[in-house]
Fold:
Amino acid sequence: MGFQESLKAMSDKTRREILNLLKNGDMTAGDIAAHFSMTQATVSHHLSVLKDGGLVTDRREGKYIFYELNTSVIEEIMAWLIELKGVDKQ
Amino acid sequence: MGFQESLKAMSDKTRREILNLLKNGDMTAGDIAAHFSMTQATVSHHLSVLKDGGLVTDRREGKYIFYELNTSVIEEIMAWLIELKGVDKQ
DNA sequence: TATACATTTAGATATATTTCTAAATGTATA
DNA sequence: TATACATTTAGAAATATATCTAAATGTATA
Structure:
């Protein structure tokens, strides 16, 4: 889990949509998958890429596994973008 | 050129290094390529991906082609990240 | 404990990406 | 105008990614 994995994770449209969904609160893998027309296995793969990138965390509650947005990584990416933009050229 | 292409472009380490180089000012394709151990053709490919993502622009000056960082796209990405992070949870 | 439900993992296939070498293009200059 | 230099484009090979189906895992409950 690092910068590389975080950006790779964000570079896919489906995964960005998952992140947008999680903005409104934690969701189970099943509920997330229900928003897409691909198989649950495929969505599960995307969730694991997001997890590798540190963009989400998961926790089990009984039969269900809940996914939650992790914003600390997002701040790291923003810091890089701000640095890239350059303080002098705003 | 859109959000998807911009993030795809940023998701590669070599391309992020190119962006970091261009932070310090415009550079020719040759000077950029000199910073890497891959062929000029490969670096040229990366530059074209960055261009597709709107992250750089190029201009010819005689024999040379100069590349320049384009920061407006970066702001668009930052806006998404800020939105993702959520105003309420800072 | 057998069954059902929620989810992930394994293995396969198709598509995309990275990289290379060789050839092509555009510009300057002897 | 022939040649050299800077760079890109074309085409091929290797690797990575997205997706599927089928099987495995983990948990709850009849």
